[in-house]
Design a protein that fits this description.
The chain is mainly α. The chain has ten helices and no strands.
């Protein structure tokens, strides 16, 4: 039941922000799998790797073996209770509700471990271009949506973390004005969606 697309997106963010750690984490895989992981151009490439094995990358965000074992158990439970045609086999609605709560708890747990990765990547994004003239898109709204949100496969929970980013930590940066414009665009364009999360 663990939603692997969520896990793949988190691993993608690790790959984007901690490339050296990601390379070290891929060493235990067969040579062809390692190459596939290192050459991945989207998180969906990770779906070609055994789900239990790909979960090991979560160690890079301080998920210990016990937590990873719990996540792997959820994957196993899903495999045993769901059919490829979309049917989910639970004997009672209460049993399904318990499983859904457990999945949501795990998602929150992984999200909390991802905070440093998300905020680090966001900081880098804000400071990456010294001038708005160097942005890939003509305005801050498009730059945030296309370069930050879409390229990193950021979830609303990721965006919520970024909305709380302490811009004062960037005051001394030469391109603070551009960073501030990008941050303001994130707040304006995703504010109502973030409010709905409350």
């Amino acid at each position: 039941m663990l939603t692997m697309s969520f896990v793949y997106s988190n691993i993608w963010q690790i790959k984007q922000t901690r490339e050296a750690d990601f390379k070290m984490g891929s060493i235990g895989f067969a040579k062809d799998v390692e190459k596939t992981l290192l050459d991945a151009t989207s998180p969906f490439v990770f779906s070609t790797v055994n789900e239990r094995s790909i979960l090991r990358f979560l160690k890079l965000i301080q998920c210990d073996n016990s937590k990873i074992g719990t996540y792997a158990k959820l994957v196993d439970d899903r495999n045993e209770s769901a059919h490829p045609n979309g049917n989910i086999f639970f004997s009672t609605e209460a049993a399904l509700a318990i499983k859904v709560r457990e999945v949501l708890r795990v998602v929150d747990e992984i999200q909390s471990h991802s905070k440093e990765v998300v905020t680090s990547y966001y900081r880098d994004f804000l400071l990456r271009k010294p001038s708005a003239d160097e942005w890939e898109y003509p305005n801050a709204t498009d730059q945030v949506r296309e370069i930050f949100v879409h390229e990193t496969y950021s979830s609303l929970q990721d965006i919520k973390l970024c909305a709380a980013f302490d811009m004062a930590t960037l005051n001394a940066e030469a391109n603070y004005g551009q960073a501030e414009a990008l941050h303001a665009a994130l707040l304006v364009n995703y504010g109502s969606e973030l409010d709905a999360l409350q």
